[in-house]
Every structure is written in structure tokens, then in C-alpha cells.
Amino acid sequence: MIRVATFFCFAVSALACLALYHVSEQTRVARTELSAVHRQIAAEQQSLHTLEAEWGRVADPARIQHLAQARLGMDDAPAMELSSLKLLPRRGDEAPLGEGQVRTASAVVQAGDPRVRLAAVQAGD
Amino acid sequence: MAAGGVTTIVQRRIAIVSLICVAAFALIGVRLVDLAMLKGGSAAASTAVTRTIAARADILDRNGELLARDLAVHDVLIQPYSLTDKPKAARDLALATGANEKRLLRMFLARQKPNEFVLIARQVTPDVEGEIARLGLAGLEFDPAVKRFYPKGRAAVQVLGQVDSDGHGLTGLELGLDRQLRAGHAAQLSLDTRIQFALLHELEAARAQFAAKAAGGIVMNVNTGEILAMASLPDGFTDESEVGGGNPFRNRMLRDIYELGSVFKIFAFTLAMDDRTVRLDESFPIGRGFKVGRYLIRDAEHMPPTLTAREILAQSSNAGTAQIALRSGPDRQHAFLAKLGLLSPIRAEDPEGAKPLLPRRWGETETATIGFGHGISVSPLSFAAAAAIVVNGGRRIAPTFLKRSGDARGEQLISPQTSATMRELLRYVVTNGTGKLADVPGYDIGGKTGSAEKSVRGRYVAHKLLTSFCAVFPIDNPRYLVFVMLDEPHGANATGVMALAGHTAAPLAGRVVARIAPMLELPTQAPVLADVSDPP
User: Of B190, B262, B382, B451, which is the active-site residue?
Assistant: First the structure.
């Protein structure tokens, strides 16, 4: 009986050792993979870091203006805001700006002024 | 088993082995539970990898746009001992990095021992690094380093400042916010990249148009003290020959002081209105000038024999303003300017604020000249902060480069009624006075011109002007202040060859307002359509 018990104990012990080795090996592999993933994440973060900085450079207003002038033939045209975008009428609504004389508290813009026509076009007139 | 309950040696050995087995099982069991259920916490912790932590935190604009960031780069070194063809290596490396080929070759020949290295280039970007790696040279080493990168280039270079090669702030906000940035806390500035660009662009155009030596500008929120834009030219991106030996990264708006001239009249009038020493419809003799002590104060342009106080400001009469300033007296003027913060260095996050230059003796003559902006030199930012108090309802404001939320006005320094009167007067200057060219349809701008003769070797020179304009809008309830300045502008054909502020700085301020106001979501009301039968 004792022999059986002893054998049983050793067998279980051996099995437990094997299981422990297996778990330990799995842990080692998982740890290696985790390290690799962390390294990858760090590299990705670094790339994002650099790309964000690069985006900041390419989205620089000075660069966009330069490109718009050089490639699209756009010019630094005089601009005048007569109304905020929120107040512009929807399509089909009556436009608030016609070809008439427009006056604000500060200045009068004559009816032939190209800026008024521009505003009228924007307003859907 | 021994009879009579006496254990044999064998039985005792078996018991000992059994105990050892049980102990071993217990240990194995505990470890299994730890690994299976507690996930081997210590093991997981030990796998933590080094994350890429920037040595210095980011600087962002008010909309979250990146203004400064540390990027991981490499310093490139090479071991000349490993090179077989040194002249070719020097040539290739010079092409890839921009280094001096002759210097490289000289260094390669001078350092031939196995343990000697030559620094090829510092802080090379990843693309250059790839180019170097593709050369396939033996003995190359890439040492990790950090480079401060400013994606917006010149836009706010003088405000942001610089760092040294070890990542310590040297100038500007890099110095002022050094502790915060090195602790890893990002800084969100009050600057708006779009407005900064618009200001810089208009300054550059005006500087070219009037062939001015220098130009500068500030955009500030008068209720929060936030500086939305600040620029001065020439900057580090201008042709070096233009800079004339000065530091191109110098923030003139903060670090330099100027006799600003007639824009200072704002304060003489504010004091007079606050103390009620002058009525706006009161007439003052102007025509032949005004004598203070042994000095005769005259106006640059022809003036009528008398002007009302309102017209004195609108036409920018020095003789008239001197009389108004003298009604306040030296002590009261000194105390008032001190209260506005004009007599001490400006306090903002940038620690380089200049100390104002004040007269040694503050007598009657000085009171009269300071009234129209001569005899006292302050930084443009100090001036802008004080002018903001005048128009924001009269409450103290501290200029800041950091984003704020909500009204930050403090102590009441000037009565609200005086502030309202000054807003009305500044509007009058634009509609009826020297600031007409600053007006922009759709926005009610108030402002004041300033054309100060520069002092050269102790004498004022009539043709060397420092012109400026301080604009505030919308004038009925001001939110923003624009201050622009041109150093020695020359009259252009478009201005009838006039170099005074009304023809140079005023239109510049108007163009800046026209450009930035839509970005600032102004105006909020539709314009009024004029009745054709109602002439303007």
C-alpha cells in the first residue's frame, strides 16, 4: 500500500513538474511576445509622433498658401466678410445682399464693389 | 509496521520523505495558483518595456495644433579605422548630411586608432539616417538623441524661443515654461496658428511695401489677456544681410522698448476723462504751438488755431495733448501709468520682458512730452496690455501666452464710463481722424495712430519714424486689440509718399483685422442694407 502511495505521489509530482515546466515555458514565450508587442507599440507611437509633427509641417498655413499660389494659381485676393456663415441663407431663401448699396455702422460699400458681388454670390444670389 | 506502536527507522524515513513530498507539492501548488490565477504579476511587471518618452513635452496652440515637439533622432559617428576608402567616405557622408567634406577627411586622417570616432552630424532626421545607412560604410554608429522640432517653422519662432542641444530652454517660452515642459506637462498656448500666420503675412507685405527696417504686431484678447498672435520682422528666416547684425530670433514686441509716440495719447486722454479735468467739447489753443518751460511743442502737420479735446485726439495734436496732460500733473500721471503697468517690466510667461526707460526727473516738461508718447520707452506688449485695460471696461488684465477660458479681468482701474468714452473717442479717430485708412467695412474699429520721430545720437530725426496703430474691435464691446508697428517706413506711391502712421500702420492694422475677424467669428450680426435715398 505504501509502495502504491509512494509511486502515486512520485507520479503526481512528476506530472506537476511537467505541468509547471509547461506553464513556465508558456509564460516565457508569452513574455517574449509581450515584449515584442510593446516594442512594436513603442515604434508605432514613435512613428505617430513623427507623423503628427510632419502633419503639423505640411498643414502650415504658410505652406498651403505658397502651394495654392504656385500650383493652383490662386491669389491673395482682398476679402471682406459681410455676414457670418451661420447667417447665410439656405438655398432657395431670399438672399440678404443684393446689388444695392450696403452700409454698416462703420463704412459704406458702393454697389459695383467686387467684394459686394462676391458676397452676393456666396449668399446664393 | 513494528508491533506495540514503536516506529522503525524505515517508517521514520518514509514519513520524512512523505513530508518532503507534501512540502514540494505545496510549493508547486502555490506556484501553479500564482501563475494560473494571479497571472504571475511580478513576471508581467518585469516585461515592461521602455516606452518612448519625450525628454521635453509638446507645445500646442489654442486649437491643439502642434507648435513644438521632441523627436527621436540620432547623432551619427564613424570609426575612421574601419574605412578603406576615406576620401570617398568623406564625400558620400558630406553629400548625405551636408557636412563639410574637407573637415571630414581631415578628421578621418587624424583619428586612425581603433577606439577613435568622428562625429559626422548631430540630430539627423530619419530620412537622412536612412540615406547614410544605405552608403553601407563600416564603422558607422548611430547614437540616440532628441531634436526639438517646430512644425510651423517661422510662424511663432520668436515667441516660442529656442532650446540648447541638451534640451534646456534658452529663450522665449521654451525658457519661460522650461520647468513645466521638462516635467513632461504639455503647454497649450493662447496663440492661434491661423491668426499668427495672417499677422506675419500682412507684416511682411507692409514691410516690403514701405521698405521698413522692421515690423511687428500683436493680437490680444482684451477680456482674457490672451495673446493670439505676436510677430516681429526681420526674423530668423529673413536674409541675414537685412538683419544688420542683430539677433534675428529677438522678440521685438517683448524685449525691445520704443518711444511709441502718439498712440500714447490714449493714456493722457483716459486720465483726463477719468479725473474729469477736460470736457470733450472744450477748446484748446493749438496753432503756433504750446510752450512748456523753454521748449515749444509743435505739431508735425498744420493745425487750426484751436481744437476741441475730441479733435485733438482725432487729429493727433501734440500741443493740445500736452496741455491736457499738464492738467493731470506729473504725480497723477506717474501714478496712473504705474497703475496700468507701464512703468515696470511686463509679466508674462516669457521672462524676457524689457524694463521700460523712464525719465530721471518727472517734471512738467516730461509730463507734457509723455502725454504724447515721447520721453518714455516701453515694450509694445506693455503698451498693448495697458491699452486693453482702457477699452475693456477699465479692469486690470494680465497678458498671457497660455490658453485661458472665460473672462479674466480683475480689479477696476478706470471707471466703466471713462472706458466707454475712450471707446467712442477711438472710434471717432477712425471715422473722422488720422485712422481713417484702418476702417474695415463690417467691423467697427476704433484706434489711434502713432508716428514717433526716432532719436539718433540724442536728437529726434524728422524723416526716421516709428509708426504704429492700436486697433480695437468691435468698438462697442471690444474683444480684440491689434497693435502693429513699422520701423522707418518710407512713403509709397500708394500713400502719396506719406510715411506717417495714418498712411502706413493704419491700413496695415485694417488689413490684419479684415483677415482675422472672420476667423474670430466676427461679426455676429448681418450688415445693414443702406437706403439709397439716405446718403451716407
Answer: B262
Residue A108 with chain B: CB contacts under 8 Å: 441, 530, 536
**Cβ neighbours of A80 in B, within 8 Å:** 440-442, 514
Report the gap between the CA of B158 and the closest CA in chain A (Å): 16
Does the beta carbon of A69 lie under 8 angstroms from any beta carbon of chain B?
no
Q: How many residues does chain A have?
A: 125
Interface contact flag, B441 A107, Cβ < 8 Å: yes
Burial B64-83, CB ≥16 within 10 A → b, else e = ebbbbbbbebbbbbbbbeeb
Interface test with B, best of A28, A106, A113, A122 (most B CBs within 10 A): A106
Does pTM surpass 0.80? no
Strand partners, B467: B451, B486
Say yes or no: ipTM exceeds 0.85. Answer: no
pLDDT tens series, chain B, 536 aa = 444 556 788 888 888 888 887 888 888 788 777 766 765 555 444 444 344 445 799 999 999 999 999 988 888 999 999 988 999 999 999 999 888 999 999 999 998 888 899 999 988 877 888 899 899 899 899 988 888 999 887 778 889 998 988 889 999 999 999 999 999 999 999 999 999 999 999 999 999 999 999 999 999 999 999 999 999 988 866 554 444 445 667 888 999 999 999 999 999 999 999 999 999 999 999 988 898 888 888 887 788 899 999 999 999 999 999 999 999 999 999 999 999 999 999 888 888 888 999 999 999 999 999 999 999 999 999 999 999 999 999 999 999 999 998 899 999 999 999 999 999 999 999 999 999 999 988 788 999 999 998 888 778 877 789 999 999 999 988 999 999 999 999 887 665 557 899 999 999 999 999 899 888 877 544 445 444 444 43
Name the one residue in this structure whose C-alpha cell is 454697389. A111
Asked if A56 and B65 come within 8 Å (Cβ–Cβ), the reply is: yes
- Residue contact A80–B28, C-beta within 8 A: no
Exposure on the CB side of residue B187, measured as CA atoms within 13 A: 24
B64 touches chain A (CB under 8 A): no
Q: By the CB < 8 Å criterion, does B41 face chain A?
A: no
Please say if B377 is a catalytic residue: no
In contact, B243 and B427? CB cutoff 8 Å: no
Q: In this complex, is the C-beta atom of A23 within 8 Å of any C-beta atom belonging to chain B? A: yes
- Report the distance separating Cα B91 and Cα B95, nearest Å: 6
The answer to whether B151 contacts A57, with C-beta atoms less than 8 Å apart, is yes
Angle between helices A61-71 and B193-209 in degrees, nearest 10: 60
Please tell me whether residue B523 adopts helix, strand or coil conformation. coil
**B518 vs A79: CB contact, 8 Å cut-off?**
yes
Asked if A105's CB is within 8 angstroms of B530's CB, the reply is: no
Residues in chain B: 536
Q: Give the chain A residue whose CA is nearest to the CA of B39.
A: A27
Radius of gyration of chain A (CA): 37
Assess B383–A contact: CB distance below 8 Å, yes or no: no
The residues pairing with B258 across neighbouring beta strands, listed in sequence order, are: B378
**Is there a contact between B58 and A50 (Cβ–Cβ < 8 Å)?**
no
What distance, in Å, lies between the first and last C-alpha atoms of chain A?
A: 106
